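FORM 7B - TANDEM STRUCTURE REPORT

SECTION 1: FIRST PROTEIN
SEQUENCE AND TOKENS:
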Amino acid sequence: MPIKTKSSFRRHAPALRSERTASTVPTPTHVALIGAGSGGSALLSVLAPDPLVRFVGVAEINPKAPGLRIAKRYGVRVTRDFRELLSSEEVDLIIDVTGNWEVEEALADFNRAGVAVIGGASAKFMWQLIEARVQANAETKRHLKKYQDLYRLYVKEAGSAVTGERSRIACEIHDGLVQTLVGINFKLDLCRELIFSDPTRCHDLLSDARTQLKAAVEESRQVIFNLRPLYFESMELLPALRTYLQSYETQSHIRTELIASGEEVALSPKAKVVLFRIVQESLSNVQKHAHADRVLVTLAVSGGRIKAMIEDNGVGFEVDAVSQDPTKWQSFGLKGIVERARLVGGTARVESRKGAGTRVLVDIPILQKEAQRRGANKGPDRR
């Protein structure tokens, strides 16, 4: 059959019919699909499982078309002659994704009350939109699987800090990544509702969803990195912090500086994890709330204790007012910082006032048997 291109057409308003019975159950739209190539495959993969869509049949002359496997999976009738589908009395909507001029001419002459016809550029836009949604979902699943694999690795290494870290990770994902993915899903669902009635609006929503998806991918990568450093740096705190601060500076455009003194060997693995997470949480707060352009992180091991300070030059806030509001105290991440320090017998406090920046001060004791392993103090290590 010769293939020619021809301008798109639309015989009737392309809208799915949604009637309601007395029991408020929507009546499925009966769809006839002409073509089971890449376009038909995309439409079948999304619409066939939908209870509001029922395929009357699929017409395809190529026995190796990818959409035929999907049609078989869902028990959709297949025919080589598209005219068989046109003669069906059940059809509410006909979709042509073949680009074949003979099919277009036959549908241009087809005229039956209550039956909508979509073909040409309109049908191409529709299946490409749906295909983009399928690809976006696959990309999201791939990155989430990578995150889950690394999360399991982290849980194995974190030991006694697992419970506290699970809560932190859950909050981080729920407040950031999950909310972004929910927004993407909402836009894609809205695209599906508008795909026939308002293709232009649908295209705009798809562009927004793709932008959000890119942001979600970057956020998932950051979550993965946040889990990774202490494991891949053999549990060494300073190399992990330097790597993290470099990444943070690139992402946030906030200049960072790290000053460290004393022997890191005196610290237990648990204390290293806690300190690393406190620095992470503090810098996350700086990026979200402080409007700062500089952050200084200092670590000092001496006298059987390790003291840390994370200081920014941001707008600051009234600590007393925030501490009396449990919602703000938690949303600012301050509760997590204090609780982490307590996990290893230490303390943490926040000093700030409006217009004067913020300082997070951490003081953690070193166990006696660990202190005995310390060597001579090193000079300041300035990055």
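SECTION 2: SECOND PROTEIN
SEQUENCE AND TOKENS:
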Amino acid sequence: MERSNRQIISVSDLNRNAKRLLESEFPILHVEGEISNLAQPGSGHWYFTLKDDRAQVRCAMFKNRNHMVRFKPRNGQQIVVRGRISLYEGRGEFQMIAEFLEDSGDGALRRAFEKLKASLQTEGLFDEARKKPLPGLPEHIAIITSPTGAAVRDIISVMQRRFPAVQISILPVQVQGDQSAPQIVAALQRANRLSDEQQTAPFDLILLTRGGGSLEDLWSFNTEPVARAIASSRLPVVSAVGHESDFSIADFVADLRAPTPSAAAELITPDGDVLLDSFNVITRRLRQLMHQRFTDSAKEIMYLQKRLRHPRAHLEELAQRLDELERRLISTIDNQLERQRSRVERHRLTSPQTTIDANRIKLGYLKEKLIERSQSAIRARSDQLVNLTVRLDTLSPLATLQRGYAIVSSETDKHIVTSSQDLQPGDHIRARLKSGAVTAKVQTIEVSTTSDE
């Protein structure tokens, strides 16, 4: 019997090889069609048929993927499916494994979004170089949003918790619908106009925000007029539109994008507790520096007081020195006389009477000369003391007052007045006299034509 060269495979192998071939040859696809035969069993997976007017394909979307879909699919709904081609081996059915669904309207909006995004990016509206820095400590924030939405309540709650001193103004707008985009543009222009006019409460920055929603709900923030209004704003603009996964054209143009409205409130307001702690640290440091400065100044004043001596103290010291010199001089005279007396006594014992008489005469002469010289030295020292006293009195401002002069100072800044040109009619002056002082008002000014210098 002739042997056959045919290769026979099982149905399972066939379907497995077909599945492998389909999954390897086809990339991720986007397919548009209408939902029919939608089934949602208890497992959480979705099964439906995607069809158009000429064909259909089975689709499966597993639980780990369909929970990300923001709308509830229904039969007859036109959608766009992103997924991969596969084969269900058990029945040999060709099918598409869906990874993401979006409404066909969202698909058109998404294409418009990408087109506008590319155009504005090419124009440079997204460049980091044109973005303005945010103020570190804003005093007044303009919030452009719906006044009745949950987003504005979350923002106010966060700001009041973090920094209650910040002032908030709500510029109410519709955040979706046909009138939304024009209202947002008008609110942005109004916030800038109020700040330019420097009215009672100019704004430091603008927060443009709303809560989450579908792409269609957020579309006002993806329009070109809103993007250009943000770009032309002279005030910094923070954008917080939708959820963390949502990105809008406003986010790209704004000076800062926050993932959520609450996160925006955290980003644009400082932490009051941290600021208070810093303030307390600075206050303590300032008090320490002030105390140290006062202590150093007090020590310097005490040092200067010790160095500053009154003229009377100097005179007393000179008088004390004069008394000391007088005592030393008298002591020297007494010592000399005692030595001479001793010599005379010695000569009286060892010499004749004539020697004694001669020495007595000599001793008398020496005594007279010594007294004469001592008195001369005392007079010289006294004259020197008088001269020093006269010179000291001449230099003392109190001596000047004793002669009938006065020391004139300005009543306003207390400086000594030395020239009539330092005063004006109507100025108040204070004149210190020998006894007491008087305050006077300048009536006329006489300018001297000669200089005493």
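SECTION 3: OBSERVATIONS ON SECOND PROTEIN
The two ends are 149 Å apart (CA to CA).
The chain has four domains: 11-109, 127-270, 311-395, 401-441.

SECTION 4: SIGNATURE
Preparer initials: ____
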